[in-house]
Design a protein that fits this description.
With 432 residues, the chain is α+β, with helices and mostly antiparallel strands. It is built from seven helices and 26 strands. The strands form five sheets. The protein has a seven-stranded mixed beta sheet, with helices on one face.
């Protein structure tokens, strides 16, 4: 559990900096996790001031630049935001990782791994199933060893690992599997070539990095509870059983052609029937989710983006390294083009329902957003002067590049998977 946790949203960077300055004495240099979300409204000088203000809170800190937080209010897309979480140094270990991951995926094949180490210049920001998947993943990368600060930690003592990375986090997530009973959540940083001149902008203490990952490993005495939500997502098929899969391909569902099942489901959807005559449009976002049984009810567990499908061949390719195993119950989902996630509202509602009476909870949530959301611009005069929104006991960060999820349950963590559905939220809750 954090000593202090807040998310501050404002159109005025000065208001965010003013709030941060009030926290300086209470944080006392403890290990700090942070994100800074910028919009097209944010001037480069304001960004530099925000970074400087946050870094002044602690000499021990990790963070990244993130995307604008999705909201149903268009004006809020022009807001900057800073999320902060400070932890007791007795229970927190910061780390920097240069373990390589993979290159861009090869659709319909096993993904190739890249092993070369990328240069990591440092400069001021103003310059530009039954499978033993832990062993399988560890053997796939040159990332067997943990980052040095983590190598001496006892796996049994680690409760959670939170990190920010470039778009190739697979090597790190493989290495982190050694913390077998811990929940691991990673946010892939927002793309920043037009903001800082770097593909990604990661912060580790006083250094700025363009690749790799930075994070914090927590051994807090209060255990966390993972949570997830996918607002706006609609099921378009009944539950189906995977009867053949290989690599990142699902070859058969209920012994039937999965691409044909998907195409039929889209054609039967009233809002998309007229748009699906020539196949699946790239504008249509479809997903395959695994279902798990809880209290006699099937609920959505993991969610994978469907990247391609061919009715003649049958197979469906997923944005994952390993498709659901044979025998897994799955269902296909669609995110309607009209979906407009209100993440700020969803998080506020969730936090208020979890915090009741004398119960004190903290919520950390990573959000997947779309490129359109992160670049949204409102010409309306709504809140022209802006208002400052402070979400106490909430850490909220978004990226159009998604997040990496490996939650712990019954003493074991799940195989890592990537959440990229716009508006999809994954996170942790601590309660006292």
């Amino acid at each position: 559990m954090a000593l202090q946790m807040s998310t501050i949203l404002s159109r005025k960077s000065a208001d965010i900096i003013g709030y941060i300055s009030k926290l300086r004495s209470s944080l006392s240099g403890n290990p700090l996790l942070y994100t800074i979300s910028v919009s097209h409204h944010t001037e480069s000088s304001d960004l530099a001031d925000l970074v400087s203000s946050v870094k002044s809170l602690s000499r021990n800190s990790v963070g990244c630049l993130s995307a604008a937080i999705p909201s149903s209010r268009p004006g809020w897309q022009q807001y900057s935001a800073v999320s902060l979480a400070s932890f007791d140094e007795k229970h927190a270990t910061l780390f920097r990782s240069t373990i390589p991951g993979r290159k861009a995926p090869l659709v319909g094949r096993w993904h190739a791994m890249h092993k070369e180490k990328q240069p990591d210049p440092e400069a001021p920001i103003g310059q530009s199933g039954d499978m033993d998947w832990e062993s399988a993943l560890s053997n796939a990368y040159d990332g067997n060893a943990l980052p040095p600060p983590l190598s001496g930690l006892s796996p049994e003592s680690v409760d959670s690992v939170l990190y920010f990375s470039d778009n190739a986090p697979e090597g790190l997530s493989s290495a982190l599997s050694k913390f077998f009973s811990a929940t691991k959540l990673g946010l892939v940083g927002t793309s920043t070539p037009f903001i800082t001149g770097r593909p990604y902008t990661l912060f580790y203490n006083d250094s700025i990095h363009s690749d790799g990952a930075v994070g914090i490993c927590l051994s807090t005495p209060i255990r966390n509870s993972p949570h997830s939500a996918f607002p706006g997502l609609e099921p378009i098929t009944r539950p189906l059983i995977v009867t053949s899969s290989e690599g990142n391909l699902v070859n058969a569902l209920d012994n039937a052609n999965p691409s044909v099942l998907l195409l039929q489901a889209i054609r039967n959807h009233p809002a998309l029937a007229s748009r699906s005559e020539q196949g699946i449009s790239p504008e249509i976002k479809v997903y395959m989710g695994t279902l798990k049984q809880k209290d006699g009810v099937r609920e959505l567990d993991q969610l994978f983006c469907i990247t391609s499908g061919d009715p003649s061949r049958g197979s469906i390719a997923l944005d994952t390294e390993a498709a659901p195993a044979d025998g897994t119950v799955v269902q296909m989902f669609l995110l309607p083009p009209s979906a407009s996630p209100d993440v700020v509202g969803e998080v506020q509602n969730y936090h208020s329902t979890q915090t009741c009476g004398s119960r004190h909870t903290q919520n950390l949530t990573f959000v997947s957003t779309s490129l359109n959301d992160s670049h949204a611009f409102s010409s309306s005069s709504e809140n022209a002067d802006g208002e400052t929104i402070i979400l106490k006991d909430v850490f909220l960060a978004a990226s159009e590049n998604g997040s990496i999820v490996s939650r712990a349950a019954d003493g074991r963590s799940e195989r890592p998977w990537k959440c990229r559905v716009p508006g999809g939220m994954v996170g942790l809750q601590w309660a006292m």
